[in-house]
Structures are given as structure tokens and as C-alpha cells.
Amino acid sequence: MQVRTKRYIGKFFTHLIIIFFAVLMLYPIIWLFMKSFTPNDEIFSNITALVPEHFTFENYTAGFIPKGTLGKSFLYYMGNSMGLSLAVVVFNAASCSMAAYAFARIRFKFRNIWFAVVMITLMLPYHVIVIPRYILFNNMGLINMRDVAGMNLNFLYLPLTLPKLFATDSFFIFLLVQFMRGIPKDLDESATLDGCGKVGIYFRIIIPLSTAALVTTALFSFLWTWDDYFSQLLYILDSARNTVPIALRSFIASDSVSNWGASLAMSVLSIIPCFILFFSMQKYFVQGITTTGLKG
């Protein structure tokens, strides 16, 4: 009985510590949500207070048609970000899964060397390749394509989406390779006896069994693209094609009055798709992370 009591007390304090750190981590989100209903002149008057003295919905009203974003609704820029993020998700999942399949299941000359080269790029800081990549895209005419064949092609976001077709995100290749190595190779042999080639094995065996890893790839691709500010600021020159991070930045002006209330309100709206996506895919995400690294 005494042992059981000590066990309950231990679990109680363990859960108490977990709850404390959970509240500590969620505090910025709670603060953001509550301040989005606070008038502009009260947001920083009492910065530690969570409950505002006066509730207002003007921040959300002003955010939908802000002066700093050409009078367009914030939902318009959320649509831009959604289109860009979904394109990156599809391109990353397709190209990285093909590259991972080649490294994990197909034997070819210098396979290990090429895989090592891909892994080395993981240690290459992004800022090292910013200038060479910008010069390359600029010379290819992919930046600000409003005058190509009389059409405005900036909606394609080619500097941000085109590289994803060539499996440039080595992290996802590594993730998928480790997952695919855990799939029994007996399935490949059975499929080969049934007349499947490499392409058939990829579509009928590997892809259906790699759902968890593909969902993890899609989730990370979406979140990283949705939250990316630097790359989108660098390559998006057409204001009509601005995305959520750039639209949020337009509320904060260095030479005029900043609309902090609208910025906080639209920040709340901007994180809703991320929450919905993460919690709806949480089961596959956990499975994809926990099973990565197992080898058959």
C-alpha cells in the first residue's frame, strides 16, 4: 500500500511539472490571443495583463482591409500562402520520395557516395547559398515574371517552388530513406515475381507503406513554407502576390503609426491553418517520426 501511495505521489508531481511547463510554453499564444481583442492604446500600457480592460473586435475588422496591404483583405494573402505552401508540399513529397526510393531500394554505382553528398548539404547554412541562388534565378528570368509572353506569371512563385521539383531538401530525403529502409525487401521480391518493375514497386508498395513519412514531409513542408519570411521577402517583388509573413509585416511601419492590434489579430488567424493541419495529422506525424531510423 505504501509503495502504491509513493507511486501516485510521484505521478502527481510529474504531471504537475508537465502542466507547469505546458502553461509556460502556451503563455505566448494565450497572450497573443487575448491582446488581439485589446485596443491599440492599451496593448503595451499593461503588457503583463492577459485580460483586457476593454474588449474590441476592431482589430479583426481593421485587419481584413489594412491600409498597408493595398486595401486587400488579409484572407487574400492567406490564399496566396496556401497556394504556395500546397505547391511546395506536392513537389517536395513527389521529388524527395523518388530520390529516397532510389537511395533506399535501388542499387547503382556510387550510391553511397551520392547519398553522402546529399547528407553533407544538411550542414550547409542556408545563408551561404542565398546570393548565388538569387543570382542564378535572376539570370534565368524567374524573378518578377510579369512581362513574360505578355502574362503575369508571378503567381507561380517559381523561385520558391521550382527547386522543390529537384529534391533540394535533403532533410526530407534522409527522413524518407530511413523510413523506406524499414520496409521489408521481401515485398519487393514478391512484387517483382508478380511482374512489377521499379516504377510499379514504387507506386504499389513503397508509397502506400510510407504514408506516415510522407505526411511528416508534407507537414514540415507546409509549416516551413507558411512561416518563411526571408525567402518570400527576397523573391516576391509583386505586392499582389504577397504572402502572410509579408502582409503581417506591413502592419508595422517605421515611419508612421503601427497598427499592433490588427497585427496581433491577423497573427491569430494566420496560425489557425497550422493548428488544424498539425492536430489532424498528429497520429501520422508521430508514427513517421518514431519509426524513422528502423532498418529491415
Keywords:
15 helices; single chain
How would you portray this structure in words?
- With 296 residues, this protein is an all-alpha fold.
- The chain is built from 15 helices and no strands.
- The protein has helices spanning 2-35, 40-43, 58-64, 74-105, 111-120, 130-139, 158-161, 170-180, 186-193, 198-209, 211-227, 230-235, 244-249, 260-280, 282-291.
- Helix 1 crosses helix 14 (260-280), helix 4 packs across helix 8 (170-180) and helix 9 packs across helix 10 (198-209).
- The longest helix is centred in the first third of the chain and has 34 residues, at 2-35.
- The chain is flat, with a radius of gyration of 24 Å.
- The model has no long low-confidence stretch (mean pLDDT 85).
* Low-pLDDT segments, ≥5 res: none
Query: If helices are DSSP runs of H or I spanning 4 or more residues, what is the number of helices?
Result: 15
Fraction of residues in H or I helices? 55-70%
Q: What is the string of helix and strand elements?
A: HHHHHHHHHHHHHHH
- Main sheet summary: none
- Strand content of the residues, in percent? under 5%
Shape: flat
Rg over alpha carbons: 24 Å
The count of DSSP E runs of length 2 or more, i.e. the number of strands, is 0
The chain-level mean pLDDT equals 85
Q: How many angstroms separate the termini?
A: 45 Å
Going by helix content, strand content and strand pairing, the class is mainly alpha
